Amino acid sequence: MIAVSKKLLLMFLLVPSIVFSHSPHKTKKLDIVITPADEQVYIFALNAGEGISTDPLEVRPVGSTVTQQASVFPGGKIKKKSNDFAQGVNCKKRIGVVSFVEDMLAEVQFDPANPMFPEEGTVVAMSNWQIRFNRDCHNEENMIFLTGFSKMKQPPAPCPGSPVMTLELVVIGGAGCNPTIDNNFVKGRVYVDEMGATLIKLEFAEEIEYRD
Questions:
Q1: CA-to-CA distance for 114 and 90, rounded, in angstroms?
Q2: Alpha-carbon span 178 to 212, nearest angstrom
Q3: Cα(170)–Cα(186) distance, rounded to whole angstroms?
Q4: Closest C-alpha among 105, 152, 151, 98 to residue 128
Q5: Mean of the per-residue pLDDT values for the chain?
């Protein structure tokens, strides 16, 4: 009888660790790092009408399309004043992947040696986003879909730690842990480091959910 009781007690103690091994997290903030150093996830493809370029430092002319993919991390993990955002890229800390497509409405160039940005307040691009979290939720892919635009924030020579652009996005759908988050507005700030890597900090008006 004692042996059986011990087995039941052990099972009882183990149940929480099994149930909560992929526990839910609620947050309003996410960090995104776009860098070629993130070899497992990174994608950059510029279509300016003369074939596909994979060089993120090339000029992005009006009318061109840019497709990018990058890692998503919990908000606050990457410091905006860092000289190298790639140092914060750790696949073990990644909670998801973001893919987005931009239709360029202004000419820009993210080359640190030769930056090219329009005047502050200029709408730079229209964009559509898909965030896919690593863990399923309720037996479904945990995803968030967004649409919106980017706007110029800083003059052509941005200060370190200051945003180059801002993002105005709205959630248009979701699945998994986020099936009913339509019309959740999202603000973003875009930073560029000395190496040309990009950090995007997103902040949702309402909480979203993911599992680790």
A1: 29
A2: 15
A3: 6
A4: 98
A5: 86
The span from the CA of 88 to the CA of 104, in Å, is 28
**Contact between 17 and 193 (Cβ < 8 Å):** no
* Cα maximum dimension of the chain: 79
Centroid of chain to Cα 42: 12
Residue 11 backbone class (left: φ over 0; alpha: ψ -120 to 50; beta: rest): alpha
Q: Given a cut of 50, is residue 27 above it in pLDDT?
A: yes
pLDDT value for 158: 53
C-alpha closest to that of 150 among 176, 121, 112: 121
CB 61 within 8 A of CB 99: no
| pLDDT band at residue 20 using 50, 70 and 90 as cut-offs | very low
**Cβ–Cβ < 8 Å for 48, 60:** yes
Q: Residue 163 burial (CB < 10 Å; 0-12/13-18/19+)? A: buried
What's the rounded Cα separation, in Å, for the pair 175 and 208? 11
Question: Residue 151: which H helix or E strand, with range?
Answer: strand 143-152
Q: What is the pLDDT, as a whole number, of residue 17? A: 43
Q: Look at 39 and 157; give whichever has higher pLDDT.
A: 39
Q: Are 27 and 207 in contact (CB under 8 A)?
A: yes
CB atoms within 10 A of CB 15: 10
Q: Can you tell me the distance from the alpha carbon of 37 to that of 86, in angstroms, rounded to the nearest whole number? A: 6
Structure tokens at 115: 């930056």
For residue 4, the SS3 value is helix
